[in-house]
Each structure stands twice: as C-alpha cells, then as structure tokens.
C-alpha cells in the first residue's frame, strides 16, 4: 500500500488545461493521479482510485442541474481546476474538482483514494490513533469513500474555491496511467430519475480503497 519504491514528483501539478476538457474524460484520467495535501510540515500523498462525474445542466444528479445556482454550488461555475468542497448531512465534507469552461457547471467528485505516504497521519485524522493500532476493519475503511478521505486528509469547506492548479496545500499531480478501469452507476443518487443509470462512476479494478 505504501509503494515505498515509487518515485512521485509532487511538483508535477496538473494544469488548468487538464481539467478544461470533457468531464467524463477528466474523470477517467484522474484515476491513478496523486492527490497531495500539505499540512503542518507533512506531505500526505494518496492515489485516486475512484471518481464520479457530474455533468451540469442536463444531469439530474448534478448540483447545477437546469442551471441552478446557490451560494453552495457557485464554485462549480468557476474556472476549471477549482476545488468544490461542500458539506452534507451535517457531518461530511466532499471534495470535487471543477471541469470544462467557466459557467458550464460540471465537476468530478473524488470518491476513493489509496494512502501512499504518512499513513499514520491519515490514521490520526481519521480515527485519532496510529495506523498500527487500527483494527482490520478500520484499515480497510480509512479512505474508501468521499467523506472518509476528506476526514483522513483534513480537507474541509475552507478549501472550497481553492485553485488546485496553483495551490501549495491541496493539488493533484501526474501519476499512473496503465490501469484497468471499471465504469458503473453512481452511488447515493436515488432522487435523480434517469440519471441514476448513467455510467459516470469510474474506479480502478480490484483496488481495496474503492468504496463499497
């Protein structure tokens, strides 16, 4: 899991042109990239293994469906590469990255990541104890879900609107490309009528940090 042999250039940041493309393409290509979080002098590195695409005005599962604009979702209408972090169910933070051109209102939700470095810091943020003291159940569930990964990486709504193409605290860098990718229906959108069946969720096959 720690991939100690793997050399990752944490300065090789994805630029705006990467995100300023078809959202489904961006979603698939985010798999294998590395989500970087710098905090308290530490660098947390995780590999993105699961995402969901949300396609704006025509997508009934999207916060911007039919052109809706609220204080919460206004970042989705901004520049590509901005972090869209929203708070839901009174307890969870969800990290998305804005895609396409301004005013289009599309984004990709980061649903699951695999911890690569500083696993004890992930563990402390998530469970309040060192990784070695986690149960087998906790180890399997440290970052395999969108709310779990934001807690484990200390990402909250203070990062909403942050430019991830320029930030030195939260950003994504180039990573692996030779991956077996699976597409499926998105999770937890039972309200979205026909959009329930869109195959807009993508994940790395057989990776244990994909949400259940």
Describe what you observe in this structure.
The structure is a single chain. The chain is an alpha+beta fold and 212 residues long. The protein has a single domain, classed as 3-methyladenine DNA Glycosylase, Chain A (Roll), CATH 3.10.300.10. The protein is 16% helix and 26% strand. The chain is built from five helices and eight strands, in the order ααβββββαααβββ. It has helices at 16-19, 23-30, 119-127, 136-140, 146-152, and strands at residues 34-39, 42-54, 83-88, 92-99, 106-115, 170-173, 181-184, 201-204. Strands 1, 2, 3, 4, 5, 6, 7 and 8 form an eight-stranded antiparallel beta sheet that branches. A hairpin with a 3-residue loop joins β3 (83-88) and β4. The two termini are 18 Å apart.
Summarize the structure.
The chain is an alpha+beta fold and 212 residues long. The chain is built from five helices and eight strands, in the order ααβββββαααβββ.
Second rung of CATH, namely the architecture: Roll
The gross shape turns out to be: globular
Total of helices = 5
- The topology string of helices and strands comes to HHEEEEEHHHEEE
- Structural class, please? alpha+beta
Mind telling me the CATH superfamily name? Methylpurine-DNA glycosylase (MPG)
Average pLDDT works out at 95
Key terms for this structure?
single chain; 212 residues; alpha+beta; 3-methyladenine DNA Glycosylase, Chain A; 8-stranded antiparallel beta sheet; 5 helices; 8 strands; MPG; alkylbase DNA N-glycosylase activity
Secondary structure: elements and pairs:
Blueprint: H1 16-19, H2 23-30, E1 34-39, E2 42-54, E3 83-88, E4 92-99, E5 106-115, H3 119-127, H4 136-140, H5 146-152, E6 170-173, E7 181-184, E8 201-204
Antiparallel strand pairs: 1-2, 1-6, 2-5, 2-8, 3-4, 4-5, 7-8
Helix pairs in contact: 3-5
């Amino acid at each position: 899991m720690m991939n100690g042999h793997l050399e990752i250039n944490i300065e090789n940041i994805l630029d705006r042109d990467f995100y300023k493309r078809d959202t489904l393409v961006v979603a698939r290509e985010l798999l294998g990239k590395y989500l970087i979080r710098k905090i308290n002098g530490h660098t947390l590195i995780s590999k993105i293994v699961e995402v969901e695409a949300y396609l704006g005005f025509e997508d009934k599962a999207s916060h911007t469906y039919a052109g809706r604009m609220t204080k919460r979702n206004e970042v989705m209408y901004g520049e590509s590469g901005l972090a869209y972090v929203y708070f839901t169910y009174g307890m969870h933070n969800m990290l998305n990255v804005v895609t396409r051109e301004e005013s289009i209102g599309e984004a990709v939700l980061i649903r699951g990541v695999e911890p690569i470095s500083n696993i004890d810091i992930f563990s402390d943020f998530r469970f309040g104890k060192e990784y070695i003291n986690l149960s087998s159940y906790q180890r399997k569930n440290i970052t395999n879900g969108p709310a779990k990964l934001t807690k484990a990486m200390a990402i909250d709504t203070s990062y909403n609107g942050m430019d991830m193409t320029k930030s030195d605290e939260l950003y994504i860098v180039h990573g692996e490309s030779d991956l077996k990718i699976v597409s499926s229906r998105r999770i937890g959108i039972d309200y979205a009528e026909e959009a329930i069946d869109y195959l807009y969720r993508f994940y790395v096959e057989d990776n244990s940090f994909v949400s259940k």
